[in-house]
C-alpha cells in the first residue's frame, strides 16, 4: 500500500523561503513531484522529477524552486525561494508507480503574505 507523508509549509513573507518534503513508501516510483492549487484555481504542476530523468518545472517557478529526490529513501523535496504572494496555494505531493498509478498526499498549505 502506497503511503505519502508530507511536511513543511506554513506562512512566510514575500521573498522568503520554505522547504516541502514528502516521504513515500510501498512501491517504486517512476515520477515524483509537486502540484499546487491556489484559491479559485485548478491544480497545476509545480515540478516533477522522473527516476533518473530530467526535472520539469512550471515556468512560473523556474529559477526560484528546486526539486530533488532521493531514490534510496523514496523522498522528494521542494525548496522554494523568493516566494511571491501568487505562490500561495495548497501543495500536493504526487508520485506515480512503475505501473502508472498516481497517488496524492493530503496537501500542505503555503501562504505567502506580509
Structural class: mainly beta
Largest sheet: 7 strands, mixed
Count of β-strands: 11
Radius of gyration: 13 Å
Which whole number gives the mean pLDDT?
A: 96
Distance between the termini: 41 Å
Overall shape: it is globular
Low-confidence parts lasting 5 or more residues at pLDDT below 50? none
Q: What sequence of helices (H) and strands (E) makes up the elements?
A: EEEEEEEEEEE
**Number of continuous helical runs:** 0
Percentage of residues in DSSP E strands: over 45%
Helix content: under 10%
Descriptive keywords:
4-stranded antiparallel sheet; 7-stranded mixed sheet; mainly beta; 114 residues
Commentary on this structure:
By secondary structure, the protein is mainly beta. Helices cover 0% and strands 55% of the residues. A hairpin with a 6-residue loop joins strand 4 and strand 5 (44-50).
Amino acid at each position: 500500500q502506497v503511503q505519502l507523508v508530507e511536511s513543511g509549509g506554513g506562512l512566510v513573507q514575500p521573498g522568503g523561503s520554505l522547504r516541502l518534503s514528502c516521504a513515500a513508501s510501498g512501491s517504486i516510483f517512476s515520477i515524483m513531484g509537486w502540484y499546487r492549487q491556489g484559491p479559485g484555481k485548478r491544480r497545476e504542476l509545480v515540478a516533477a522529477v522522473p527516476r533518473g530523468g530530467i526535472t520539469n518545472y512550471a515556468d512560473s517557478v523556474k529559477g526560484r524552486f528546486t526539486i530533488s529526490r532521493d531514490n534510496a529513501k523514496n523522498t522528494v523535496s521542494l525548496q522554494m525561494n523568493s516566494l511571491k504572494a501568487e505562490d500561495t496555494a495548497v501543495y500536493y505531493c504526487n508520485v506515480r508507480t512503475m505501473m502508472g498509478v498516481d497517488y496524492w498526499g493530503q496537501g500542505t498549505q503555503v501562504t505567502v503574505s506580509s
